[in-house]
């Protein structure tokens, strides 16, 4: 079965999905965000749910052994905060923090929320064990053809992710974290490919996803002088789940043409 990582003894070995398309000696942000979520969800107390994950991707993570260094910042009756860092050769490469909250009754009254349709492909088109991603550009049909989506239209992706670790069921928090990193790809994929790299990823969740499929719809891209912000809505078959925001840096000299180098 396809996965991001395989376990060999006490170490995790990166599979193809976890390798960076920018530099084969490094791990991809998607796999790294999944690992950070996997580590942090171990600090979620009973009765709490993950509400926010923020990952700072300030150094490349090498395709090499690593360890996680974690701490609980606060454990309260309604909020818990935990931090973690991925360490290689004694040096922090990336760090992340998570907020876990206790769900409860909603306050009275009505508030505004968008009523836009969040489209999904036909049910049953993907496997629970993972399938190639589907994309939709503008009003076009869903397709897994990367070349057909290399344009300047608004993009949506629909994905069923394989396990993060071989032989270990992927959790809903891990799914959300991996999809959060894909916000860069979704918001910055234009007519010539993608030319930005993530400096951070933030996933805000009002609830955990339901089911094995997740959609991500680009909502906004704001760019100036080589720095760009991408924002997207994360959703499942039942409706919106949360929002994903990335801060990115121009990497034009190593721009990826996804029509010839797809992430699959």
UniProtKB/TrEMBL annotation:
Per the record, the coiled-coil ranges are none
Q: Which Gene3D superfamilies match?
A: Acyl-CoA thioesterase, double hotdog domain
The Acyl-CoA thioesterase-like C-terminal domain sits at 153-245
Q: Name one Pfam family in it.
A: 4HBT_3
Which ranges carry the Acyl-CoA thioesterase-like N-terminal HotDog domain? 25-100
Disordered: annotated segments: 105-126
Protein name per its UniProtKB record:
Thioesterase family protein
Q: Which organism is it from?
A: Nocardia jinanensis
**What does the organism's lineage look like at the top?**
Bacteria, Bacillati, Actinomycetota, Actinomycetes, Mycobacteriales
